[in-house]
Amino acid sequence: MDLPYRGRFAPSPTGDLHLGSLLSAVASYLQARKNKGQWLIRIEDIDPPREVAGSAAGIIRDLKSLGMTADEDISYQRQHTATYLQAVTSLLSAGKAFRCACSRKQLKDSPVYPGTCRKLGLDAAAIRLRVDNRQMTVPDNLQKTREYSLNDDIGDFILWRADKLPAYQLAVVVDDAAEGITEAVRGCDLLDSTPRQIYLQECLGLAHPEYLHIPLLTDNSGRKLSKRDRDDPLNQLQPVAAIRLALQLLGQQPPAEIIDLDTLWNWAIGHWELKNIPLRLDNEYIT
Ligand SMILES: [Zn+2]
Prior knowledge:
The chain has a 3-stranded parallel β-sheet, covered by helices on one side. It folds into 2 domains: about 5-80 and about 175-275, Rossmann fold; about 80-170, Glutamyl-tRNA Synthetase, domain 3. The protein is about 30% helix and about 15% strand. Helix 5 (about 170-180) packs across helix 6 (about 195-205) and helix 7 runs parallel beside helix 8. It is elongated and about 65 Å long. By secondary structure, it is α/β, with parallel strands linked by helices. The structure holds zinc ion. Zinc ion binds next to loops.
């Protein structure tokens, strides 16, 4: 059975909308429109220490001024804490997760969690998911299929943080399922989150969305453009120019004569081609 397409853009409210995140927004929006589906916005506000006041409202306002509005009410992760807690409690009861008392310092030489607390039955705040010792194949609608060893590449990962906040992987998996997301379109910085999320979906008995990772925008020296870059080109651009730039970076070639936003979006929806997205985003369009 083919489910109706449901996609989402899920920014963290840690700053302004920048060009890198706009590319994820545009790609996810066009995938949803092209597939005659729904496009949702989810604010990933589960990390109050990193949050910038006013950022969520600013991102939503910027998206709207760029012609992108969600088809349903905007979802805020902070309002879903009870659901996340329910999920992690079920994993603990099923013996699929365990409490961990390791400090950051204790783990600093272990890129993959060494399993220290697996069988200790501790009474600690942090909770980790116990991973199986097997391979996982992760398909992608744009990137090459990737292979991971859950044990050696991933390790038991955090579901609930020592500071008593839900971890990113848990929140995303619970929300993608609750919101019926059929395809997650996002940047390649999240490639290695995907096997974690698929494994967690298995443990929770949830459906798997498909995944599509778009390449990251880098500067001339190959460094990822981040929201700390004050010279983000988005600041200087009018909406039509900003969407045109995003489309060009995504390998789409809108005709120069289109000068209004509605016409540009109509063109983009009609002509959106995944196969034109370059494997490496070229910044030749950024001046
Ligand atoms: Zn531990």
